[in-house]
């Protein structure tokens, strides 16, 4: 158990819909990351928040957005869903953003868009 | 543009023998490299990392070697155990990027046979 909690574990939704994935980082971790793992793209970095502020962006679609709340939990919002958004979405956390800090991953949220 | 490559999708090794996993990269600005292990239905678990200023890092049965001139790193697992059967991901961090914005390889499936 990494200490990073993600909900829901599985989600099936229709195209065009909007979903929210939730992440609780390890206690005390300030940095939260979102990654997407799809069959054809592998693990791709989406976005990072550090202590409530957006810190880095990757290949995140404009239809996707995220935020980190004062209690440090984070949410990833996916809207206007397409079939190609079906993937495993991982949240990860680290104590700080200093290089070398261990990054712990949650078990992921499986999203299936039908 | 895949900057981190794991060219062997699978590896089969006998229990007790050495497992050697390889990873190549194209960007000389990567300054940190990490290895993660992933079991089905779980998130990636951190194994070991190495800074670009070193050429070797060891932690128990796991050793990572870095050859910067060849842009190549490898993970050695000695001795291999059945519980090591998993997918192994190589990841890299750019010096100019925020820590945690990792670029992952496609993974190598390791099967340890009795």
Descriptive report:
- The complex is a heterodimer of chains A (about 110) and B (about 110).
- With about 110 residues, chain A is mainly β.
- Helix content of chain A is about 0%, strand content about 55%.
- Chain A has no helices and eleven strands.
- Chain A has strands at about 5, 10-15, 20-25, 30-40, 40-50, 55, 65-70, 75-80, 85-95, 105, 110-114.
- The relative contact order of chain A is 0.34.
- By secondary structure, chain B is mostly beta strands.
- In chain B, the strands form two sheets. In chain B, strands 2, 4, 5, 9, 10 and 11 form a six-stranded mixed sheet that branches. A five-stranded antiparallel sheet of chain B has the order 1-3-8-7-6, with no helix packed on it.
- Chain B is globular and about 45 Å long.
- The model of chain B has no long low-confidence stretch (mean pLDDT about 95).
- The interface between A and B is medium-sized, with 28 and 26 residues.
Summarize the structure.
The complex is a heterodimer of chains A (114) and B (114). Chain A has 114 residues and is mostly beta strands.
> How much strand content do the residues of chain A show?
over 45%
Integer-rounded radius of gyration of chain A: 13 Å
Structural class of chain B: mainly beta
Continuous helix count of chain A: 0
- Helix-strand pattern of chain A: EEEEEEEEEEE
Measured between the Cα atoms of the first and last residue of chain B, the distance is 38 Å
Q: What oligomeric assembly is this protein in?
A: heterodimer
The global form of chain A is globular
Shape of chain B: globular
Largest sheet of chain A: 7 strands, mixed
User: What's the story with the biggest beta sheet of chain B?
Assistant: 6 strands, mixed
Q: Average pLDDT of chain B, to the nearest integer? A: 95
Which structural class matches the secondary elements of chain A?
mainly beta
Largest interface: A-B, 28 and 26 residues
Order of helices and strands of chain B: EEEEEEEEEEE
* Chain-averaged pLDDT of chain A: 95
Q: Regions of chain B with pLDDT < 50 over 5+ consecutive residues?
A: none
What is the β-strand count of chain A? 11
Question: Cα-atom Rg of chain B, whole angstroms?
Answer: 13 Å
- Number of β-strand runs of chain B: 11
Q: Level of helix content of chain B?
A: under 10%
């Amino acid at each position: 158990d990494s200490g990073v909690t993600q909900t829901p574990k599985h989600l099936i939704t229709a195209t065009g819909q909007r979903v929210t994935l939730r992440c609780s980082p390890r206690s005390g971790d300030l940095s939260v990351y979102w990654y997407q793992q799809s069959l054809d793209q592998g693990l791709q970095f989406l976005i990072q928040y550090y202590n409530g502020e957006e810190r880095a962006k990757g290949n995140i679609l404009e239809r996707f957005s995220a935020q980190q709340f004062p209690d440090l939990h984070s949410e990833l919002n996916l809207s206007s869903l397409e079939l190609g958004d079906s993937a495993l979405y991982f949240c990860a956390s680290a104590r700080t953003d200093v290089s070398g800090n261990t990054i712990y991953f949650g078990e992921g949220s499986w999203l299936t868009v039908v | 543009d895949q900057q981190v490559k794991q060219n062997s999708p699978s590896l089969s090794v006998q229990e007790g023998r050495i497992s050697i996993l390889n990873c190549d990269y194209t960007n000389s600005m990567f300054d940190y490299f990490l290895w993660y292990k992933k079991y089905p239905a779980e998130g990636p678990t951190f194994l070991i990392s190495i800074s670009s200023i070193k050429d070797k890092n060891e932690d128990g049965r796991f050793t990572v070697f870095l050859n910067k001139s060849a842009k190549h790193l490898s993970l050695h697992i000695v001795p291999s155990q059945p519980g090591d059967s998993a997918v192994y991901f190589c990841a890299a961090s750019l010096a100019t990027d925020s820590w945690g914005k990792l670029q992952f390889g496609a993974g190598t499936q390791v099967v340890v046979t009795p």
